[in-house]
Amino acid sequence: MPPSTLLSFHIPLLPISPRHKVINLRRSISSNLIHLSPSAKPPLPYHLTSQIPEPPPHSSLIKLGLWNARSVCNKPAATLDAFLSLHLDVLALTETWISPLNTATPAALTSPATTFYHTPRPAGKGGGIGLLTHSSWTPAPSPPIITTFPSFEYQLTSFTSPHHITFLVIYRPPGPPSAFFDHLDCLLSSLLPLPHPFILLGDFNLHLHCSPIASALLPLTNSFNLSLLPSPPTHTSGNTLDLIFLSDCKATSSTITAPRPPSDHLLLSLTLSLPSPSPSTLLPLLPVLRRNLRTLDTSSLISLSSSLLPSISDFSSLHPDLASTTLSSALSSSLNSLAPLCPYSPSHRPSQPWLTLSLKSDRRSLRRAERLWKSSPSPLNLQTYHSLLSNFLSALELAKHDYFQTLITALAPHPRQLFSTLNKLLRPPSSPQSSVLPTLTASDFSHYFTNKISTIRLHLQTLPQTSPHPQLPILPPFAPNAPFTDFPPTSYSELSSIISKAHPTSSPLDPVPASLLPPLLPLILPYLVSLFNSSLSTGICPAVLNQLSSFLC
Asked: 3-class secondary structure for 381-394?
């Protein structure tokens, strides 16, 4: 299958914000959004005036978006660009239309800056829920699915970093509510209360202020301490179908973007104020330190290490603990002198490398046309905006197609990199899942294996003493207190062979990285042989070799 046939990207009619100057980034974004003021009269039928309370002190802010996309399958690149250009932390998507077998769309929404979690509709067309987040957000292990409900679809996602928060995204198809309230009551009862902020959001397809049946939703959510966020109508017909309920957090601002065809829903974005965790629960941020080994002169390292090491005859007379410390100190001091640890800032890969200068210029023109239409919503300005929008998205689709086609062609002589690139394009990284119930603790884990070992030992004691195979002799029982008195000393050739065959992996406790062992081996091999033979003859393992380093991942 040729690359042009394999990769086909369809981009929607989505406006994209300009980024021609970093200093004007926030100004250009804010001018593209419709601000909601308690005193301003709504100029368009889908605007809503609402007063948002002030954020409490000592809080942290996140930017949340909600949008009924009506299929992201034909517009993953534009959806990703909208998420990045609006500087959202989380974007909840309903009606993603992603089928269970579709892996290319989730992969296209995953980039170095973003992670996409989604729940497709098990059968049939349409439906589906997704959550697009910044890649720095760390998800918590997902609890087992409680049950499925025929009246709506939902996705539960919790995060532990940078904020401990849980999102419950819901999509209820159009139609009579029937058993929706009972099902939602059952779901919320199994989840709440939680010790951290909880957000219920999605497309409920309910007219709260028009239908007496739909108004039953507010008493239900109030009973779980969920407050409805005053939000503008998110449907082009003027209805408020996309709702957000908050618990243990508040909204500081709320805006909507311009209509985004072909979806008939508007993208709602808001800034949430979360309570800051107590200082005692915050882990200190440790700097990332790295050595620049590329510019290290190995001959200088060998010369400096040789000057710091004692003679081999003096080294052989040292106690194993002192000998091990002397060797490690000489090597680590030499390395710190020639290649010290320095703060390291990892380079960030562009999230959209196919964006050219020409596309960025077209995006600025598109933003100007959008602002002109908002200031003067005439049919002519709207037609101009849609024309520029269509041209920009067509160029964006072509640029992304050409970028990946060029990349695949360049990687043709390298099959491993080629298959890795295709796998990233067609298969998204798996979402972290866990089948462990939230009630299990580390003590339960320890008791399980302790009891399992005890059961095995008891079973071994009850086994018959006769051999099941007559041709095999019955071995005497192992005596755990049997002494080991004879350890043959190692040799230069044996130790050199072991080191040369070892996998070059390193630990932060190593005095030098494993990659520097080959050039250093002629110098340190006599010291290693002397140290190991001294340890074997005295029966003493150096204390330096008994250290353990653990890391939280």
From this structure: HHHHHHHHHHHHHH
d(CA 134, CA 141): 17
d(CA 172, CA 187): 14
What pTM, to 2 d.p., does this model score? 0.62
Cβ atoms of residues 66 and 244 within 8 Å: yes
Residue type, 546: N
The per-residue pLDDT for 304 is 93
Confidence band for 5, pLDDT divided at 50, 70 and 90 = very low
Phi-psi region of 375 (alpha: psi -120 to 50; beta: other; left: phi over 0): alpha
DSSP class of 255: E
With beta carbons less than 8 A apart as the criterion, state whether 300 and 335 touch. Answer: no
Specify the DSSP class assigned to residue 20. Answer: S
Compute the half-sphere exposure of residue 155: CA atoms within 13 Å on the CB side of its CA. Answer: 25
DSSP characters over 157-222: EEEEES--EEEEEEE--SS--TTHHHHHHHHHHHH---SS-EEEEEE----TTT-TTGGGHHHHHH
The residue behind tokens 């099959």 is 415
Nearest CA to 305 out of 80, 525, 36 is that of 525
- Report helix angle 298-308 to 517-538, nearest 10: 30
The pLDDT tens digits of the residues spanning 164-209 come to: 899 999 999 988 888 899 999 999 988 888 888 999 999 999 887 7
∠ Cα 343 344 348 (to 5°): 150
Residue range 89-115, pLDDT digits in tens = 999 999 999 999 898 899 889 888 899
Q: Which tokens sit at 56?
A: 């409490």
Residue with tokens 């590329």: 294
H/E segment holding residue 234: none
> Is the distance from CB of 155 to CB of 119 less than 8 angstroms?
yes
Asked which of 167-171, 251-255, 411-415, 448-452 is least confident by mean pLDDT, the reply is: 251-255
- CA-nearest of 91, 57, 89 to 274 is 57
Distances (CA, A) of 483 to 107, 479, 534, 540: 59, 9, 19, 15
CA distance linking residue 417 with residue 411, whole number of Å? 7
Question: Model confidence over 420-455: pLDDT tens digits?
Answer: 888 888 877 665 543 334 456 677 777 888 888 888
